[in-house]
Design brief:
This protein is of the alpha/beta class and 292 residues long. 39% of the residues lie in helices and 18% in strands. The chain has 11 helices and 12 strands. Strand 8, helix 6 (167-179) and strand 9 form a beta-alpha-beta unit.
Length: 292
């Protein structure tokens, strides 16, 4: 079943967020949403965690289905074995989409991790559920205060958006742009990209009227032909900066173990950038300079 674009739009522009499985002492995901402009909820079963969550002023529930309101985005931070249950509840709840921070799937090459990822793919595909990740930091929306890092700015402004397979580089590009005065509008860190991949995010941002330029960090592509076509259309409408990982043999091995992707050869990337008109860069510093 193809991704429901209206549900995807809800997930990327949420008016309600439920964080499932956040734990202390830092409560990373609830803290990240401190400036979220919509309704924020927690789902946590651990009785030791609930009092601290409620001290933060966040309403806690024992399951997604207990939340009385519609949920646009679920941020999932549970152990990997629990993820199918969270996805099942999200499907039943008809949420907009899921951002899955949880890792330990196909990128580990462990049979259990591979099987769990395949199960999630089957569940989300059958339900038309947008899934960001797994093994990712997820969604940043400056205007709405949805964040995957406390250093990310919030409020009005910004017209450049970032797509990153790596959470570290997604954070680095966002914060680096901010440090030189560039306000980032959106950022998507998508990790393994098993349902929504680089082509889906690029297509979304191409059609996003609030984004006038796009910067990407990619470690590989799921569907090279589709990505080429989407990139070619994107560059007709707005500048696209591309920084690809895995330029060396060691780099190729590193990105393969990071998100389970296979990096293409440098000659293939160079030819694609030339044919599509995208702007190629070789480092985070060059990406930030290009954004500025």
């Amino acid at each position: 079943m193809p991704i429901d674009q209206s549900r995807l739009h809800r997930a990327l522009n949420p008016s309600s967020v439920a964080v499932v499985g956040d734990k202390g002492p830092d409560y990373q995901w609830l803290t990240n949403q401190k400036y979220f402009t919509g309704e924020l909820y927690s789902v946590q079963l651990d009785e030791k965690e609930i009092p601290n969550i409620e001290k933060m002023g966040v309403r806690n529930y024992l399951s997604l289905n207990e939340i009385p309101d519609e949920i646009d985005l679920v941020i999932c931070a549970v152990p990997r074995a629990i993820t199918p249950y969270v996805v099942a509840d999200a499907i039943e709840k008809k949420v907009g989409g899921i951002s899955m921070f949880t890792s330990g799937f196909a990128e580990t090459r462990e049979p259990e991790g591979v099987a769990l990822q395949e199960k999630l793919v089957e569940m989300c595909t059958d339900a038309g559920m947008p899934l960001v990740g797994p093994n990712c930091l997820g969604i940043y929306n400056r205007k709405l205060g949805v964040k995957f890092g406390v250093g990310q700015e919030h409020g009005e402004g910004g017209d450049i958006s970032i797509i990153s397979q790596s959470g570290t580089h997604g954070m680095g590009m966002t914060n680096g742009a901010q440090s030189v005065g560039v306000k980032v509008r959106r950022a998507f860190s998508f990790g393994n990209g098993v349902i929504l991949n680089e082509s889906d995010y690029l297509e979304y941002l191409t059609n996003d009227p609030e984004t006038s330029a796009i910067a990407m960090y990619l470690e590989g592509t799921r569907d090279g032909r589709r990505f080429f076509n989407v990139l070619r259309e994107a560059t007709k409408q707005k500048p696209v900066i591309n920084w690809e990982g895995g330029r060396s043999t060691a780099g190729t091995r590193a990105v393969s173990s990071h998100t389970g992707s296979l990096a293409s050869s440098q000659s293939v990337w160079d030819a694609m950038l030339k044919q599509t008109g995208a702007i190629g860069v070789g480092s985070i510093e060059e990406a930030i300079d290009a954004m500025a």
